[in-house]
Design goal:
- The protein is α/β, with parallel strands linked by helices.
- It has 9 helices and 7 strands.
- The protein has helices spanning 2-5, 18-41, 44-54, 73-77, 93-105, 144-154, 174-194, 197-208, 214-223, and strands spanning 63-67, 85-90, 112-116, 129-135, 155-166, 226-233, 238-244.
- Helix 2 (18-41) crosses helix 5 and helix 2 packs across helix 7 (174-194).
- The longest helix has 24 residues, at 18-41.
- The chain starts with a helix and ends with a strand.
């Protein structure tokens, strides 16, 4: 597939690997990341996270892994499931530092633990977690299939996965409005506020080339996941992917 051949990196002119560039990019914008998320999404992302967490309610998970946790927003949202433990992993230490500060202020550090880790080389044993969540992180994997395979490996049989990722709106006229915002407004304000031009030009490019919909669930199928489902959210700006091991 064409999407598999194109590797979109924050800086296409750099010889550094995508993983190295993504780590540096998020370290650079960590202090402004939460504000930009709320500002640029107009708060809609909170509703998306709620839907992802609600999709896990039927299995009542007690041990949850949040992959590419960033500043921990989805891990914090997952507390509504009343788990015993949530572990978040991310390659950006500075994003994790911001998340740890939030967790300490909320007195949640006994339940939520954030660790630096590679999503494509998870330091956990097989069949360990009841549920796995990812919010807007799989798009940044250097090797998408390897990342999915790792999540499958550490998930218990019968466990569920919930993945949020941006999609491309196809319905007129929303597609034209969204494309203009995503390709012009968002990179301008994102770059201005974060002082990182690459981060918010990389975002629309990475979404443009991401294998969405059934192209993405094909990766889940190859790993061994069953009952894969796609739920478009907010006119298709975002999609919630769920599956069972």
């Amino acid at each position: 597939m064409e999407n598999e051949k194109i590797e979109i990196k924050p800086d296409q002119t750099s010889d550094a690997s995508k993983k190295e560039q993504v780590e540096e990019m998020f370290n650079n914008i960590a202090q402004r990341y939460d504000f930009l998320n709320r500002f640029l999404s107009m708060g809609i992302d909170k509703g998306w996270r709620k839907k992802a967490i609600n999709s896990l309610k039927p299995i009542n998970p007690k041990l949850i892994l949040d992959v590419a946790t960033g500043t921990g927003d989805l891990a914090i949202a997952a507390l509504k499931l009343n788990p015993d433990k949530i572990i978040g992993v991310d390659i950006s230490e500075l994003m994790l530092d911001v998340g740890r500060e939030k967790i300490l202020k909320l007195n949640l550090d006994q339940v939520i633990e954030l660790r630096k880790g590679d999503s494509e080389n998870l330091r956990f044993e097989n069949n360990y977690f009841d549920a796995i969540t990812v919010a807007f992180g799989v798009r940044n994997f250097e090797n998408l299939q390897l990342g999915i395979d790792e999540m499958y490996r550490v998930l218990k049989p019968g466990g569920r996965i919930a993945i949020l990722e941006f999609s491309k709106i196809k319905t007129f006229p929303f597609n034209h409005i969204y494309n203009f915002y995503f390709s012009n407004i968002l990179p301008f304000f994102g770059g201005l506020i974060s002082n990182s031009k690459n981060a918010y030009t990389y975002l629309p490019e990475s979404v443009k080339h991401f294998p969405e919909g059934k192209d993405f669930t094909a990766y889940l199928d190859r790993s061994g996941f069953k009952q894969t489902n796609i739920q478009p959210l907010t006119f298709g700006i975002c999609s919630l992917y769920t599956a069972v091991k």
